[in-house]
Amino acid sequence: MLGLSQFTIRARLAILSCMLLIVLAGTTGYLTRTLSDEAAATARAADMFALADQANSARIAFGELRYWNTDLAVSQLTLSEQKAAAARERLERDLDQLAAQKPSQIAKVRAELADYEKLAGQAVDAYTNDQRVIGNTLLAQARQHSLVLDELLGAMVSEVTSEARVARDRVVGEAAAATRVAYAIFVAAVLAGVLLTLLIWRSISVPLRALVSAMNGLIAGKAEVEIPPAGPDEIGAMARILALFRNTLFELRETLERLQSAQASLVQSEKMASLGQLTAGIAHEIKNPLNFVNNFAELSVELLEEVKQVTEPAVAALGGPQRAEFADAIATLTSNLEKIAEHGKRADGIVKSMLLHSRGDSGTRQISDINALVDEALNLAYHGARAQNQNFNITLERDLDKSIAPIEVVPQELTRVFLNLFGNGLYAASRRNQEGGAPDYRPELRVSTRDIGGEVEVKVRDNGTGIAPEFRDRLFTPFFTTKPTGEGTGLGLSISYDIVVQQHGGTITIDSRVNEFTEFTVRLPRTSRASPARAST
Amino acid sequence: MTVSILIVDDEPDVAELFRQRFRREVRQGTYVLHFAGSGEEALGKLNDGFLPELIVILSDINMPGMDGLELLREVKQRRPDLPVMMVTAYGDEERRRRAAEYGAFEFVTKPVDFDLLKTQLGQLPAASAPEAPH
């Protein structure tokens, strides 16, 4: 498996084809050679059989020759002589052909034949001269030779025949062996081919299946899906591309999340900015009529005083009940006007706070020690709270990171932010104390600063009443407050948001649990990236 | 010695407010108050001349038509020595800078602190320029 996956799929298929082709070519070569060998052997065997036939024919021809020679000797007929000559001719032809294959034996045959013919010729001559006794003797002698000759020829026939049989048996045996070898090669080739095909198939299908399941996982949105390890082959290349694809998907997803959160905070900033502009517009419109209300109310109090002085003699002349009634009316009128002036001033305070939203970048940036700002604001806030309520007591905890290098901020604006946050914390803690929680409740305000690389972090944590989840979204909205009427303007956090986010390009976040704690986290970047889009009027 | 003060504001109630705030001074004959509802009207009155002598102009900045800063420039061309105090609800740097550039004597932010204003008026030098001819 591992061996095969070292090769590309193309190479694997080429290996399979080559192996099958080599087996095929080898088998074909072997069979071709064997077949041609067998054909030659078969031809030789056939030649042997033909030779045996020839030897047999020579024997028959010699038998005829002997017969007709004997007949000639006795009958002296020309026909017999002719027949003997014809047999002799056939015998000679056969012997000539046999001589090519069996020269030594044929030489013996010819020697015997020569002896026989000499004696037979002499016998014929003896009979012709009527020397019968001599003729008979000679014939008997010729007969001895003919028997030897016949024996020689007979032996040759059986010898050649048996040689031919051996040759034939060997051809048949070799053909059978070649057939067995061919079968064996075929079976081995089929087995090896099937095995190799299976191996190649597995080496492709297993990683391919893993890849497909990884792709399905990606399609289903599982970015953490495991990509099979990348080999050197085509599937490995696909796996590498898929891994790249997955990583890109990861990055895209993260980018999308970042963009979405950036968009959310942009929308929030935009909302705050437009609210700020609206607030400023309203504040300006209200400011002028409010001035008149306050001025005329104050003036009216003064004028009433003058009325009292001018009418004093006349009032003194009045009867008791009327005088009391007049004094009462004047006093009520004065008190009403004072109330108008007082509430007008309160409204003026709110309007002034609102306008702080819309002031231009009034403060200038200065290299400031954030710890010093925090410390100063904390003291101010604490003494402010003590001034309002002598019985108020709280544990203040400072955890200031002394290693924070000074950063460039607008110090008076940040002091406002810290005053707001500390003031809120002190208020929440004292409120929980007043509401009479657990008897062992100890109000506590913890302020910590920390250097976190590119940003400086300030955490303000109180163990006060906490903020209900339904109020969280509206915390930074202008005029939103949970304090009783007259105690809070609902602008503190809104202004703080403006200063931290819009002016300093930082963030302000909140974590809280009702009746446990509230923690504000302000982060200020070291390098200024304040939004230039500020509400200004 | 009785002197005149010219107050320029498009808001009619401003006149009433100043009258009441300065009622004692007017009664005692310290000041004579004059009012104009626009920059143009103020220039007209300045051309006509004042009796008694005009020592200061108090002008709003935001007015329809000729605004306070334009009025300031016109006045400074005619009476370079006449102090002009600018009164505005918008206490921003830009307006302050332009008012100072055009030669405003003082920049007063609304709401007007009348006690402070009276002190400032008391410290004004009597105008030395001759009265404009009738």
Q: Could you please describe the fold and organization of this structure?
A:
The complex is a heterodimer of chains A (537) and B (134). Helix content of chain A is 72%, strand content 8%. Chain A contains eleven helices and seven strands. Chain A has a five-stranded mixed β-sheet, with helices on one face. In chain A, strands 1-3 form a two-stranded antiparallel ribbon. In chain A, strand 6 and strand 7 form a beta hairpin. The longest helix of chain A is centred in the N-terminal third of the chain and has 88 residues. Chain A starts with a helix and ends in a 12-residue tail after the last strand. The C terminus of chain A is likely disordered. Chain B is of the alpha/beta class. Chain B is built from six helices and five strands. In chain B, helix 3 packs parallel to helix 4. The chains are: A alpha+beta (537), B alpha/beta (134).
Mean pLDDT of chain B: 86
Number of strand segments of chain A = 7
State the major sheet of chain B: 5 strands, parallel
Helix tally of chain A?
A: 11
Approximately how much beta-strand content do the residues of chain B carry? 15-25%
Rg of chain A computed from alpha carbons, rounded to a whole number of angstroms? 67 Å
Biggest sheet descriptor of chain A:
5 strands, mixed
Output the helix-strand order of chain A: HHHHHHHEHEEHEEHHEE
Shape, per Cα inertia axes of chain A: rod-shaped
